[in-house]
Inverse folding.
């Protein structure tokens, strides 16, 4: 992933882990959901809560490809990173990574395609213009 | 997916849903995790809990490809289905689907690659022979 | 608890457990939430989803007292049981228990006070008459 | 609660909320679990992960009394606060609160009794001496 990313650090919680003592894998998606919220708030300056709760625009996931490369254990400090891969008419493709915060070793990475929808109809709608504009200035993923 | 599948029905719970009133997508993976447990117990007759807690063999996910095609709402009855796509030396590839229980409309489908690991080392190990044997009798996914 | 209870059995899932291999305690409340949904649907015949999503009546918890008496482990079969303790003007007090399904040993019990609210204002409202009627026929907890 | 508390701020996430748009109540316990981890790490300087994963000492909850006073919505900034109420031979009683970060309005408060256990036997053990010492210097709840 390019250096132009939006990043946040996070500690792996007891509640993130399973009886094997490592992150229960669906929990990575919960963590990344939080990262996208922070990105909308602090990176894109769009306001995720305002988008969803007030403007009634949803961002459901339509496609996901994830590779799990290393385990994250309870107490680990991890870095969550995000870059934009592609902006379409009504969809948005992201690259996301979870890395060890100290050594930068890759734990998990994924490509996620999100669609902008009306929360009234759950149908896809065009990306709102303020979001589109903000995405132009966002960190772009390197061409693979 | 072929008719030769392992299936379970389930109701979408309040706790599965997000402020948009639909299944919070990581929750699909939690549901499928339960389906795989049931499959090991009732389909393969291997005993998931015995495998993990007593034999100390893990089944972490190493690769996931998921497509979300339709929303599932609070109160919906869904059918979760699973078939084996491929059995490797140390890995196992599954096809999984979530369908509306009444109309059979596809809500979400995924391919999931699991690896058998030692829970002591978190390193991959060969699929145990009893599991390998049981997998031969399991429902196989149609060749795509 | 009296014999007049609404009951459901459930298997403790991998996803219910923490790195200590036992139920992560907040997960008991998620399980009981599912029990209350089943009770509204199958016991009271009120329709939990219809109540919340269509009639826009919420049932938030205002008070909880819980005692944890024994651990539940991954793979355990447990029985979840519920009885009505008291029906007020705008609130409802329940007794809930989680027991081992085989030996009936108590794992956890709680008293939960729920309030009927308008989901528009999040303010308490009188218990709807159909719910009040259904509650009269529901299993009552023995006087302590 | 006294001013002598351990505190952390947190944003209410989309994933914390239910179809009513407010915090799904079991999620408060997940949040408080994270607060206790932070308190052990940063306040008591004991190291929660080391305690649980390496020293194999558990801290299960045996008693809980919770009052829910106001709703927390998606996007809200909340303050989580904690004080010690009582230190016993093998148990520890805490007072915990969730408040609006801006106005300090009480959303939820609870008393939680934790027991120190051996994770080998799940039996109660005496509070380790380093933890006992650290607790003496910790913020104490005012006598009710």
């Amino acid at each position: 992933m390019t250096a132009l990313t939006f990043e946040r650090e996070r500690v792996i919680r007891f509640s993130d882990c399973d009886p094997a003592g490592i992150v229960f894998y669906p929990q990575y998606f919960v963590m990344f959901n939080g990262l996208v919220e922070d990105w909308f708030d602090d990176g894109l300056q769009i306001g995720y809560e305002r988008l969803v709760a007030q403007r009634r625009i949803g961002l459901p996931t339509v496609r996901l490809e994830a590779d799990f490369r290393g385990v994250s254990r309870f107490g680990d400090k991890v870095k969550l990173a995000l870059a934009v891969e592609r902006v379409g008419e009504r969809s948005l493709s992201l690259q996301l990574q979870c890395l060890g915060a100290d050594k930068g070793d890759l734990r998990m990475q994924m490509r996620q395609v999100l669609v902008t929808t009306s929360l009234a109809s759950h149908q896809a709608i065009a990306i709102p213009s303020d979001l589109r504009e903000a995405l132009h200035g966002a960190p772009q993923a390197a061409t693979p």
Residues 26-43 of chain A form the longest helix (18 residues). Chain A has three helices and seven strands. The radius of gyration of chain A is 15 Å. Helices of chain A lie at 26-43, 48-54, 129-136.
